[in-house]
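Reply to dn_fold:

You asked what the input looked like. This is it:
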Amino acid sequence: QVPLVESGGGLVQAGGSLRLSCAASGRSVSGYAMGWFRQAPGKEREFVAYISWNGYSTNYADSVKGRFTISRDNAKNTGYLQMNSLKPEDTAVYYCARRLGERYDLWGQGTQVTVSS
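and this is what came back:
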């Protein structure tokens, strides 16, 4: 059973928006910080956004700052990534992860986001 399940990816034109969701399956993300990462073809996985366990603290990669918003609903055990003003260079597989201490211990299988020009 995959501990985290991402959804909401798809094909969108440049300038469009998508909202990704990250649902915990059989595991809890409430009480833990969470992060979103992405991996484009031929590139290493990179950090996108971070949110503290209570949502009070967030952090973003410079490349998405001002366009993406990370959020969470602990009552639903779910995290979100709102992506606006999408660019072709945002095309990647997006992963969510649960943070435990200094590392991310639970990962999803990813959801594909493709932005056409």
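The first strand starts at residue 4 and ends at 7.
Hope that clears it up.
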